[in-house]
Amino acid sequence: MSRRKERQNWKWIAAALFIIVAGAAWYGMRYYRYLYHKPTAVSDSSLILYIPTGADFEQVLDSLRQLGMAQDEKALKWVAGVKKYSDHVKPGRYAVEPHWSNDELISHLRSGNQAPVRVVIQEVRTLPDLAKLLDKYLEPETSDFLSALQSDSLQQAYGLNARTMLTAFIPNTYEFFWNTSPVRALDRLHKETEKFWNGKRDQEAEKIGLSREQVYSLASIVYAETKKPDEAPVVAGLYMNRLQQKMPLESDPTLIFAIGDFSIKRVLNKDKEVVSPYNTYKNQGLPPGPINMPPVAWIDGVLNYKHHNYIFMCAREDFSGYHRFAGTYSEHLRNARAYQKALNSRNIYR
Questions:
Q1: Using one digit for the tens of pLDDT, what is the confidence trace for 122-140?
Q2: Which of 30, 263, 298, 306 could hold 223 in an S-S bridge, CB 3.0 to 4.6 Å?
Q3: Who contacts 172 (Cβ-Cβ below 8 Å, separation ≥6)?
Q4: Whole-model pTM?
Q5: In order of start, what are the domains of the chain with their CATH numbers?
């Protein structure tokens, strides 16, 4: 081969190498830019991204757009493709940082590392109330939670029925993953309730002659009667006296529960005629289930009720939320008249 030909070949080789190196450099720069591109921050704090169950990458991308985290969609799609994120979309609630690179963002979502939801359970009267509350925090719909709560199989698994099912749960603050299924969420709540009823509380219930469900039901009545934790053991003692003396509990909140109108502020004599197992004026003993979900302090108030001779109670006429207690009917009538007079003065007739 002539020298001229040899020099020509080397030129072609050099040119080819240059193209290869230049291409690799360009590709590397693009790779680096796409991988480590960071969007212009739209917030200084973490953003919350929700990925529904069954969502695909396009749905995730749309949610990222709304958060301002998809300003360079071409780069984001490229990184998602390299990491095969489309095949690994995991539903849930994710905390994402506004300054994350595409690599950091996609890796985080691909990992399934969710940010838990703090679920505050309180002020629940019925199973539909509980279902609606859980829907407020978690992905499943109210109907899904209610279906689980009302299912015979789950109630039987807990050893309960439709009227006692609420006793499977204790008011508290819990942490869940947003996409937790209804049954798994309820099972978690029930396990916490089992822990609550430790050996000590079970022994206390046995000591006062009540089952867990009966303690819970009585605590729900006490909670409906008074929102004062220091008064709860006194009210519980009053109802324990009535139970022990085989007197009807005659609790107004049970009538309101039976009627289903929780706006009632004044119970009338006609309300006492309602036909319901929750009418404690007509039926002796505890109702067949709780009328709300009582806080822990009220459950403990029943387990450690105060011993006294009271069998009557009436709200104080000063509307302080406290009550006047009496051991005789004549004394109770005086207290009741004072309260009725106070209601009339405020034009509260229902």
A1: 999 999 999 999 999 999 9
A2: 298
A3: 121, 192, 296
A4: 0.85
A5: 47-111 (3.30.1490), 117-196 (no CATH), 199-345 (no CATH)
